Amino acid sequence: MPSDPQSVNASPTAMRVVGLASLALLFVASAIGTTAYLTQNGRALAGGQAAAAAIATQPIDLDIGATGGFAFDTTTGEVLFAKNPGAQLPLASLAKVVLALAVSDFLAPDTLIAIPPHATPDGAVKRFPDGSTWRSRDLMNFMLVNSSNEGAELIAAASDEAIRKRYPAAPAGGAALYRMNALVRELGLTRTYFLNVSGLDISPTQAGAFGTARETAEIFAYAALNHPDLFVATTKNGMLLTSEEGERATAKNTDKALGEIHGLMMGKTGTTDLAGGNLAVAFDIGPAHPIVAVILHSSDDGRFEDMKRLVAAIEDRIAKR
Question: How far is 270 from 136, CA to CA, in rounded Å?
Fold first, then answer.
């Protein structure tokens, strides 16, 4: 269960009020300068002493179809774009980025994972046959690139015992989920939580994961700056993966904006009935100048158009300096 019961029970109206309040505070903050985001003790944190003075400029004025959006410069801390950045919205498969972070300490890339008898959580065709053996790195890449709910469940199950050894309070069969919720709290995030490891809708009225555009951007900044190798596969169009027995699985990237974001460091899509279309990316506008941008609750195709327009506007803003 999530560790923020008030967030779990918040009504849509309450969430909208919180989102509007957060937006007002954001624009006040941006007018007087924002605090830099920096890496400290292995975590990307908002606040603290800035490595460079934040640039006091207004966020980009851009009309997008998404309910929520946020973009910031990880080098200066400048808020580049914000639309309802504090509104708590379903995350869908963006949750898989946190799953990858949560289990990465417990599954070495070359760990061999024997696939147990299983069913896919979404009723999709089974891509990993029972009894086949795959390397952890390949399962992880398939999960992230193909946005596989089956892959998420298998990764979580494979890491369960190792996580519980380090965290005895973690429940058997739910250790990865436990660790995901603990991780976002360690990062100082209070409006992000997970009810399952994949982000898949639990029912027609209950999403599997929630968060805000601002906090999702912080997660992606942490991932891109501290664990870049874990997400390299998400910058590729696709991958052909092979089990120890010779079984093959083709992962096709679900990000239709992939080829139009230069310097892409990582990206992740997410879509469910409740979430609509989500997309989050980290890209290097160069040199060594990472930007993070998040689109939440757009349409399935609209998220890609929203992101392409947002990235183009950011590139234009920074090129004019």
Answer: 22
